[in-house]
């Protein structure tokens, strides 16, 4: 039997659909691309201390960092493959300081999750859902 192939490397310009399809492949045991980390919890570090251009594949509760916290900027966006919702993308903003009193920063995170329909097709015994996320610095004048 051939070893599982690897997922196409994710990058800053990957479409939402590509990210979700890659996440589904990763969940099914395909080898991770070289720019996806599983041993780093991006929620535990200030975004400026994380390596640029990396994606994070993880499961578990989200925790505030010692220097701040991530806060959702609004509703999750549905990601479609033809007419079927295959995943969700949520954008979060990093705030420095204690919760509810933090200072807004330029750091943004995009979290990607598969929908329950696809997750239930996979055989995972996991208390928390798997996500893929990336962290980018948002500059004034750029649009998300």
UniProtKB/TrEMBL annotation:
Record's keyword annotation contains Coiled coil: no
Residues covered by the NAC domain: 6-138
Organism per entry: Tagetes erecta (African marigold)
One GO process term, biological-process aspect: regulation of DNA-templated transcription
InterPro entries tied to this protein: NAC-dom, NAC_dom_sf
Superkingdom of origin organism: Eukaryota
Protein name per the record: NAC domain-containing protein
GO MF annotations in UniProt: DNA binding
Alphabetized UniProt keyword annotations: DNA-binding, Nucleus, Transcription, Transcription regulation
Gene3D superfamilies linked: NAC domain (2.170.150.80)
């Amino acid at each position: 039997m051939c070893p599982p192939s690897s997922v196409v490397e994710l990058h800053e310009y990957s479409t939402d659909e590509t990210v979700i399809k890659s996440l589904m492949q990763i969940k099914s045991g395909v080898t991770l691309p070289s720019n996806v980390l599983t041993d780093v919890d991006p929620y535990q570090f200030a975004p400026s201390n994380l390596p640029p251009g990396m994606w994070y594949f993880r499961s578990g509760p989200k925790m505030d960092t010692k220097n701040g916290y991530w806060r959702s900027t609004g509703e999750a966006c549905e990601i479609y493959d033809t007419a079927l919702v295959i995943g969700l993308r949520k954008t979060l903003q990093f705030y420095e300081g204690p919760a509810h009193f933090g200072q807004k920063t330029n750091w943004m995170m995009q979290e990607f999750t598969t929908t329950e329909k696809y997750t239930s097709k996979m055989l995972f015994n996991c208390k928390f859902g798997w996500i893929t996320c990336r962290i980018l610095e948002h500059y004034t004048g750029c649009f998300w």
